[in-house]
Amino acid sequence: MPQDQNGRAYDPRFGVSHWTSDAILAHPDFPLARAVYVDEVLALYGPDRVRNKLLISAARSVIFLVAICLDARYRSADRTTWPTVGALKKAVGVFGLTSPRRVDQVVSRLLQTGYLESCTVSTDGRVRLIHPTAKTLTHDQDWLIAHYKPLAYLFGEDGYRLPLDRDPNFQRVQREVASGFFMESAMVLLRNPDVLLFCARESGLLVLIEMVKQSAECGSTTIPLSLTDLGQRFAVSRVHVRELLLEAETRGLVALDRDRRQVTLNPSVFECLDRFIADGMSNHDLTHAAAIREIGAAATG
Q: How does the average pLDDT of the chain come out, rounded?
């Protein structure tokens, strides 16, 4: 895409400009924006252990968020927009993080716990649609704030006032825009196999983010390691965390000491996480700009 001198690219699909990931990475305050991202994402998973168990893995989070996006584009008169489990499986499959059978299991659990609700279609009783509930949309607003705050830190809060203020109309329009953006979102992972290693494991990305946070707090790339504490924090076993870190070590991302009481984060692990964060910020800036354009067009239409 053509870029202006500030590093903003024009996207002809939406008729808007947005910050590129390269421009975001080159910003002198990006390390501080990364710290904002780390704090906000970890804060999403606080003391609510039931919700954490449901949503803390990357695969379940993708299922959860894709269900919200499919609902936002739903038009009852257009069968192609109906948010069925089949449509959800097809959309989630783009990310390559889970299986259709796993989608069924997660959807069933989200229905049981009141994060999704199901209803039949008046014109076809054989079809069931799934919709997010009020508490799902509230959590999604928290999620949007966590991902727009780093952009607001770099480029000013006024530019991102609607998501930061939990505007429900912005939420709906942004999620509808994002429903046509699944491949671009998936490419954030597929272009970054080192981050995909963490995302493909239960709670793996959050383990990585927590270690990066501890590194910043210690002022050192070598930090104390407690497999038990990390496992308890993110609802997985210590064995699971150990196997994740051993696999990361084989890729040169981290180095474990002999007793596994310390772990050293190598430069490559920071590089892959920074690229992942910047790519995500760029995509969020694009969907924000497209949503603002849609809201403006509706207001003047």
A: 91
Confidence of residue 190 (pLDDT cuts 50, 70, 90): confident
Q: Determine contact, residues 186/94, Cβ cutoff 8 Å.
A: yes
Please give the full DSSP string across 97-158, using - where no structure is assigned. SS-HHHHHHHHHHHHHTTSEEEEEETTEEEEEEEEE-HHHHHHHHHHHHHHHHHHHHHH-GG
User: C-alpha 143: how far from its chain's center?
Assistant: 8
> Which of the 8 DSSP states describes residue 82?
-
CB count within 10 Å of CB 94 equals: 16
> Could you give the domains of the chain?
17-191 (1.10.10), 193-270 (1.10.10.10)
Q: Does the pLDDT at position 296 exceed 80?
A: yes
Give the model's confidence band at 98: pLDDT under 50 very low, under 70 low, under 90 confident, else very high: confident
219: phi then psi, degrees, rounded to nearest 5: 70, 30
Residue 114 has pLDDT above 80, yes or no: yes
Flag whether pLDDT at 268 surpasses 90: yes
Q: What is the pLDDT of residue 96?
A: 84
C-alpha 277/C-alpha 205 separation (Å) is 12
Q: pTM above the 0.70 mark? A: yes
Contacts of 55 (CB under 8 A, 6+ apart): 45, 61, 64, 139
172 CB contacts (<8 Å, ≥6 apart)?
A: 72
According to DSSP, the residues that pair with 94 across neighbouring strands are none
Phi, psi of 167 (to 5 degrees): -65, 120
Nearest-5° Cα angle at 29, 216 to 57 = 55
Rounded Cα gap, residues 168 and 162, in angstroms? 9
> What torsion do the CA atoms of 37, 27, 158, 14 make, to the nearest 10 degrees?
-90
**How far is C-alpha 290 from the chain's CA centre?**
18
